[in-house]
Amino acid sequence: MGRQICRTDSGTGRVDFIRNEIENAARDYRKMKILAFDLSSARGSLAWLDQDVDLLWGWPNDRKNSASFFENVGGLKRQFGSPKRIIVGLGPGSYAGTRIAISAATGLQLASRAQLIGFSSICAMEDGETEYCMIGDARRQLFFFARVRHNNLVEGPSLFSETELRDKINNAEKNVPIFCSEELPPFQRAVIRYPSARVLARLAREANRSFVLPPLEPIYLREPHITTMKA
Fold first, then answer.
1. Nearest to 118 by CA among 132, 105, 134
2. Cα dihedral value 51, 193, 100, 138, nearest 10
3. If 34 and its partner were Cys, which of 49, 72, 155, 185 is the partner (CB 3.0–4.6 Å)?
4. Domain 11-124+194-203 falls in which CATH fold?
């Protein structure tokens, strides 16, 4: 049976109708079964969220052995069934870990016909700060810097040398925390924090977010290097 259409011409009627639509959409998102995970850092993170359940698992992320991750995902499916939406952290961070996460999410999406979306891992940190800066090792003697506000990137990620990044951090406001997901001795102000699958799952309920749609790819800090065959 189709949804009744509001035909009132009054301004109050239109406002009430729009308000009801928003409230109905919010209820639908709260009921949705959401599976979230992130493998972009040294700590793996997996979450399940629906109207009645809010669960989070974390474990040391061994990028050479993903058995713990797949065991936990399998256990969730057996206990709660198939998700309706899957959200995966896209980095920046461990390229290998993020590729594993994307591959797993794609496979689960095909099997469950769930909606698949991606989101930047560094916009879903566990600390709950409204605004922070994120730094990380980009290899080849470079580091990345990004600024996040309300779980959205407002600057970067951009690449800097060690000296350049030290200057940028020193010039940053003292009340804005600096996070990293691995030990970075040159930058004493940085505090270790990890991406949180629970934060990703909660963000997946927000219809106004700019999610990445398939095909998903890791967030590259440089242009991907492609090796060509010699003639």
1. 105
2. 150
3. 49
4. Nucleotidyltransferase; domain 5 (3.30.420)
Residues 59-72 pLDDT 10s:
999 777 788 899 98
Rounded CA gap, 61 and 177, in Å?
25
Q: Look at residue 44 and tell me whether its pLDDT is greater than 90.
A: yes
Domain segments of the chain: what residues?
Answer: 11-124+194-203, 131-192
SS3 content of the chain, % helix, strand, coil (to 5): 30, 25, 40
User: pLDDT, tens digit, for every residue of 93-129?
Assistant: 999 999 999 999 999 999 999 999 999 999 999 988 9
